[in-house]
Structure formats: C-alpha cells, structure tokens
C-alpha cells in the first residue's frame, strides 16, 4: 500500500512533533503493509518556497536514512499539502510542491470559506502549470457538504479527489463520513490516504482503519478501496496518468 498524504516529517507543521514520533508513525505504517509514504507537510506561504523545500529535503533524507538504519522497508517521498490562499491565483511556481516529483499537486482550502467558484479558479491555475490538481479531503468542506453536485463540477474541471480513510470510518464526523462513502460508492475517489498527524489519533495504521470501514459494509463498496491505496498511488509514483473517474452525478444535500 502507498499513503500519498501524511504529516510524518518531524517538527515542520502540526504533524509529528518529534523525530521519535515520526519514526513511530513510519514504523506503524510499515507494520501495516505500507511500502511508500509521501510526506505532505502543510505549505502555507507559497513565497517561502526555498526555505520550505530545504526543510522538507533535510527531513525526508533523515527519515529514509533512519528507515534504512532500522531495517524498515519503507520509502519516504517529498511532497506538500498546498493551502490555496489568494497567493495561488498569482501563479507562483507550484511544481516544487508536487507529490514525489510527479505532476500531481495536493491542495486544500479553508474548510468553511471556500466556494465552488474559487475552487474552479484555483484548479485552473494548477492546470495552467501542467500540473494535475488533487483536492485533499473533499468530504470536509462546507461548499461540498452543502451541495454534493459541486463534486461533479470540480471533476468536470479536471480535479481528482483524495478522501481520508478516517472519514470512511466516521472518525472525522457523520456528515463527512456520509459524503466520503457516497463519493467512494459512486467511483468519484482517485486516492485514499491517512492524512496522518499523530500516533494517538489520525495515525498511519491503515489495517485498523480498513477494519473500521468494514463496519459500514452495507454502505461501502469495499472492493473499490484497494485500487485507491495501491494501483492509483503506484501510477502517481511512476509518473503515469491516473484517469479522471467517470461517476454518477452526486445530488444529495445535507444542509
């Protein structure tokens, strides 16, 4: 399995707060069958690119050296979770933040303030740089929760979707869980990932999350999950094309 979204680098954002915790998170992932993790620290200031990338490079090299030293079969790759502030509209070079040196860019919005119009504008900027926009946890934004059809509108613009495993287990809220399951069953999700931040909660223990998802076996098409943790992430790492999913229109509104 490959985890394309995890905050496992030490002391760079609100994820792992120490080298010890970072190691524990990687060890937990490897024990559960993960072979590769893309480290995606929050990138909040697009004009601090050099400083951010240097921090990421140093920490990724450290983690890979540590994995080798400890005999753990896990590879850590460079990446970022780019916060789509207004700066992104002025077209800074986003390529340094792409996942594992690929064309795929993981981005997120303010959970309550983002709108469909702004999301489409951001997607257009990303696409204009020959990058592929991957929206992190689309099940958590007010503008998608309030109108599921906005998922379709973003897909029409070329946006791919990465849902959190924790949303499918109900860990991140009931409304978020319902939307994530609707998206999964409709075939709208291209990637599943942990979005891990800690050892104690929102961690890298994918097998435990998969067991939790099975509790919803009547509501989740479990056969759709494995390719989103294996095949599509592997294509991403190889720089191959992950096609835009074709899925039925999502229509349900929650509030």
Summarize the SSE layout with pairings:
Layout: E1 2-6, H1 19-31, E2 36-39, E3 42-43, H2 49-69, E4 75-77, E5 81-83, E6 104-108, H3 116-128, E7 132-136, H4 142-145, H5 149-156, E8 160-164, H6 165-169, H7 174-186, E9 191-193, H8 206-214, H9 225-229, H10 231-238
Parallel strand pairs: 1-2, 2-4, 3-5, 5-6, 6-7, 7-8, 8-9
Keywords, separated by commas or semicolons:
255 residues; alpha/beta; 3-stranded parallel β-sheet; 10 helices; 39% helix; globular
Helix content: 25-40%
User: In terms of per-residue confidence, which ranges show pLDDT below 50 for 5 or more consecutive residues?
Assistant: none
Which descriptor suits the 3D outline? globular
Distance between the first and last residues' Cα:
35 Å
Radius of gyration: 17 Å
**What can be said about the biggest beta sheet?**
6 strands, parallel
Widest beta sheet: strand line-up: 3-5-6-7-8-9
Question: What would you say this structure looks like, in words?
Answer:
It is built from 10 helices and 9 strands. It has helices at 19-31, 49-69, 116-128, 142-145, 149-156, 165-169, 174-186, 206-214, 225-229, 231-238; strands at residues 2-6, 36-39, 42-43, 75-77, 81-83, 104-108, 132-136, 160-164, 191-193. Strands 3-5-6-7-8-9 form a 6-stranded parallel β-sheet. Strands 1-2-4 form a 3-stranded parallel β-sheet. Helix 1 (19-31) links the parallel strand 1 (2-6) and strand 2. The mean pLDDT is 94.
